[in-house]
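Continuing the batch. This is chain 6 of the set; chains 1 through 5 are on the previous pages. Same settings as before, nothing changed between runs. Recording input and output for traceability.
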Amino acid sequence: MSIFSRKKSLSVRLRSVILGIIVIILTSFVVSVYLVTDRERRSYVVSESENVLSSLSNSIYTRIRNYMELSRLIMMDERLVKFLRADAEIVDIGMINDARYGVMDILNVTQGVDTVIVFREDLIMMATNRFTYKVDTARLQSDEWNRDIYAKKGRAVVSLNTNQIAVKQDHKPMVTIGRAIYDLLSQKRTGILFMNINPSVFERMLNEIKDDNICIIGSDGTFLAGNRDFMQYYEHMLQYYKPASDSGIIHNIINSEGEKYLLSGCRVQDTPIILLRRTPFGTKGIPYRILYVLLFLLILFLIGAFYVGAFVSGNITHPVFALSASMEKNKRSGELKRIDVSMPDNELGMLKDDYNDLIDHVNELIATNQKKEEILRRAEMRVLQEQIKPHFLYNSIETIGFLALDAGADNVHSALETMGSFYRNFLSKGDKEIPLAREVQIVRDYLSLQKLRYGDIIEDSYDIAPDTDDFIVPKLILQPIVENSIYHGIRLKGEKGEIKITSRMESGILHLTVRDTGVGMSEEMIEHVLSSERPERSDLSEESFGLWGTVERVRIFCGRDDVVRISSEQGEYTEIEFLISKPGPAGSDQ
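Output for chain 6:
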């Protein structure tokens, strides 16, 4: 399809869309008015219901928390503690009564507590109101009734009807606060406390707010307080509400006796108490002012729609398609070129100019970055891999060695031979990669020369696996590490030190380790050395900059970043382990 056809199609679509929007808005205005009105009425009722339920829920939760604190005081009563600590053989009715009187003294400061029951670990019971309760002896012997309380490790658990252990003779439901009791001295569990709260507490709270549209129900469906007629809605609400896990307020619209009501429910936080409220819909909340505003806005919209349609078509649609066509042409060419389409002198013209400036800048950056990358890569490879080839040094060292031998200076001759061996392996005929055996020989010769200078302050040992001798590694990766171990590790420590070099093969990876007993490295220095980005020279000390350069050579050789592990303890040791694989793309010298 041509650009003209697309532009024409867009113009036609724009007019169709505007006309469609006008028709839809005119058709749906009445429906919208109804929906807004109904929504506002519902919002008003929902807000009212949520305020009442939230306030009541918070009040009940606060009251329950107060009873929890009261149960904490009861557990610390001296007479009750004595009852719990006593051996079963000496517990008698007198001790039980003393504990009961101690608990009742504390209960005198509050209202609403129907009874407090305490079971010792041997199930000997103390209760403040034992004659109105029936104890289920068979359930008491099971392990189910106390499992949730033991799981809380002394924290309070709110349940119903004492976990069915002790039930009122008249079957009146109770809200129970249970908690395990632990001895303050031995921290051993000594019993379980149950505090039963009479639902009359909730009746008084409902009377205070003067709301007869609320029913308070236990999570097991038992009636606690309020309007008993609303019990019929509990099963209905369970279809939408999971009281065991959800403590938010949920709403549902119901029809009852030909009237529409909002049925709201919530669960009191951390309790098995459910609040239900039935609220009738009234005329409150109808937003007449909003309806007038909507009508006024509708008229303005119809006027503005015609104007916007004409403006968008003449000032945006046509210029945008022209700009898009030029960009599409550049896309097909596969090059980043400037666009030369004519644009009006407005934001679209600015967009065209900014696009052209961006194209110029991107092309400039691409060229500059390519040049910089090429120069940087060449410089790094030249610095990291350049080899010195002073062949005349071989002959000079050999001549001096024969002169020393003729003069009887055997030690000098031996040192020169070691030095010659070092440089032969060091130069390696210009090779950039050498077998590990030759790399280890370089380090052996280097340490032999260093021992001539430092004497017995340095000890070296080698544990080189035979199957690693022919493994190809970058030349001169061990010598800089060993040199750092001497100059910045062992020598600074001021005592005899050891350098140990080990190698092993593991899953095709060469593990090459240098460990010294020097002064160690700081965490900051290790982080700088392990950084994969080239740091500024001023950010590192001389030794850590050299370590970074060696690590970078190995990274280039292997074609990956994870090639080194460093562990160190300052004042004790430093261990540097290289994980060298076959050369990767970055390490290729093609």
